[in-house]
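Thread title: Can someone regenerate the structure for this chain?

I was given the following input by a collaborator and told the matching structure tokens would be attached. They weren't. Posting the sequence so someone can regenerate them.
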Amino acid sequence: MFQEPPLSSYDWQFRIFGFRIRVAWGFWVMGAVLGWDWARWMDLLVDNSPGPAILLAVWILGIFVSILVHELGHSFAMRHYGISSHIVLYHFGGLAIPSSFTSWQGARQRRVGPHEQLVISAAGPAFQLILAALLIAVGFAAKIPMSEAGFAYQWFGVERPPLPDSILYTATLDALLFPSIWWALLNLLPIYPLDGGQILHQILLINNIRDALRNTLWVSLGTSIAVALFMAQRGGLGWIMFAWFAMNSWQALQYNSPRW
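Best answer:
Regenerated them for you:
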């Protein structure tokens, strides 16, 4: 699941901030599948909607920007520690893949330690959550209603404004906010190999906890099962992904079982 997909002639490649970016064609398919129901729902909110097709395009663009920001967080952290990287967006989200060491310090270390790896793992969700905070601030300032930030209205005691004449303003903010909040929080769950699982592993290593990886995998297994059961009760197919995480953690535990 978390492997770089093979190169295709349909991939889009470009550079930003010196990082090589590749967007696999499956990323757009994934975005369309996940966003179709949202686009149809948003289309029904107002009479002068531009239509579900345009709203779906807005959703896909929001997913693209937010997940790219997430992976840029990882890549900027790697660059800070002298590691070059490239980014791939694909049907399971995104990957920031280390390529080589670009500084004398990085080459001397040969590998990053747990403190550095913790920063690298946390940087992706942190960048997304910062983006979400900025978007909410823009929504407040411009008085644009945000369905994905309903909690913010309650926290700050701000009255939710009415829908504007054009649903595109709300749709754009929501399409950016949804992944920036929920994708970040999903990745912070202590599930291996998500960012949260990596963070837990590094914290255990930093504190010299024995069998850090196995303890991380046990937490990952329990969390995956709990989330899978919760999502199965709510309906939908999201539980399948967490069932896969549970199976992956169990298999890793068997592989990393103590040898006597």
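The first helix runs from residue 25 to 43.
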